[in-house]
Write a structure and sequence with these properties.
Elements lengths: L1 H11 L13 H9 L13 E9 L17 H13 L5 E9 H6 L23 E5 L13 H11 L2 E5 L11 H16 L6 E6 L1 H15 L9 E5 L11 H4 L17 H5 L8 H6 L18 E6 L5 H14 L5 E6 L13 H16 L1
Parallel strand pairs: 3-4, 3-5, 5-6, 6-7, 7-8
Antiparallel strand pairs: 1-2, 2-4
Helix pairs in contact: 5-12, 6-7
């Protein structure tokens, strides 16, 4: 399985160099990647039910003043918002609402009742807790359909209904389109009546990185909206400036491939300014906190759990992220769990006992916050 995924990665992201940029068709690259999307999954019936829904983007209010001064994201974010307004609200943002039977039972909905209320995006109780989940896929792959089974298990174990946002993907939609969509998803939940302190933010891989960005953006806004109930990071992409020894030492163990940043066809460069040369200015931009969160303060973060495997490429850099969160939030519960010999986002391998153990640990964390 590991070797097969590596071969798939090398086929999908063949190595190129900056001298090839002028001849690269990023629209075609995008279409090729999407034609090789993650396989679809579904929520097991014994776990719960789900519904495909969408948000009318024009109906979601975003405070542009709150975005000003937020580093590299400011100008392109404001441009995206202005573009939405000029398009007269024609775009919708799809999402899945996954409802586990365990959450239904808590509010008196029977197992034999596929009730409309359980699949409506409004609180079932005044203080209902929910999860806002941002999926992984290196910002170029992934969607709610591919995540229905693993997120269904997450919802089942945490006893929480879960919203999975189908954010736009690179390279056709580069940074910060994903952050824009995550912000729309969050503001939509607020508009439905959910409170920030009752939302648990969660994400895996690139989705974990997106969680960090959303928190930083909301904290920058100067309100209490960043005060989530908790944060769950599953094998998060911690930075765009990766330096950990595990990038080399775990190269033969993880299914991820350590593609060089010198290749403009590698996912992180397809995400941030596709087509830009990898020069000194570009390298400096990668150090901005919106791309490399640990390069600035991570204070005022909510209770957090980070899970990863000791066999994954990102291990050492994830450890650095944990240490930074712990340092900047000394009075907050920051939990870090390493699972021996496990690879990147091993939670998807539901046949492994470690996957079950990790979901149980997430359940314990949610119960503690």
């Amino acid at each position: 399985m590991v070797n097969g995924f590596r071969q798939y990665t090398r086929m999908l992201f063949p190595l190129t160099s900056d001298k090839d940029i002028d001849t690269m068709d990023f629209g075609k690259i995008h279409d090729t990647i999407q034609a090789s999307q993650m396989p679809p999954t579904t929520v097991p019936r014994e776990i719960g039910i789900f519904r495909e829904l969408s948000i009318c983007v024009a109906d979601v209010n975003i405070d542009c003043d709150a975005i000003r001064g937020v580093g590299l994201a400011e100008r392109p974010l404001l441009s995206l918002i202005e573009s939405e307004r000029k398009n007269s609200g024609s775009r919708t943002l799809a999402y899945d609402l996954i409802t586990p039977w365990s959450a239904c039972e808590q509010v008196g909905i029977g197992l034999d009742t596929t009730t409309k209320a359980a699949l409506e995006p409004s609180p079932l109780t005044p203080n209902e807790r929910v999860v806002l989940f941002l999926h992984g896929g290196s910002y170029v792959l992934g969607n709610p359909i591919a995540y229905r089974e693993p997120v269904g298990h997450l919802a089942h174990y945490t006893l929480l209904r879960t919203f999975v946002i189908d954010y736009r993907l690179a390279p056709r939609h580069p940074f910060p389109a994903q952050l824009h969509d995550a912000l729309i998803g969050f503001n939509f939940l607020l508009a439905q009546g959910f409170k920030p302190q009752n939302i648990v933010l969660a994400g895996d891989s690139a989705g974990g990185h997106l969680c960090l960005d959303l928190l930083l953006l909301l904290r920058h806004a100067g309100s209490d909206q960043h005060k989530f109930a908790g944060l769950m990071l599953i094998s998060p992409l911690p930075s765009f400036t990766l330096h950990g020894d595990s990038l080399a030492s775990n190269g033969d163990h993880d299914y991820l491939v350590n593609l060089p940043m010198t290749s403009p066809n590698m996912p992180l460069r397809l995400f941030y300014r596709p087509g830009a040369k990898y020069n000194s200015d570009y390298k400096q931009e990668l150090k901005d906190q919106m791309l490399s969160p640990s390069n600035g303060s991570l204070a005022e973060f909510p209770p957090t759990i980070i899970q990863c495997g000791t066999a994954e490429l990102l291990l050492d850099d994830i450890r650095k992220l944990y240490n930074k969160l712990k340092l900047d939030n000394p009075d907050t519960n920051i939990v870090f769990e390493e699972y021996p010999e496990m690879v990147h986002v091993f939670h998807r391998f539901l046949f492994r006992p470690e996957s079950k153990q990790a979901y149980e640990a997430l359940q314990t964390f949610v119960q503690s916050i």
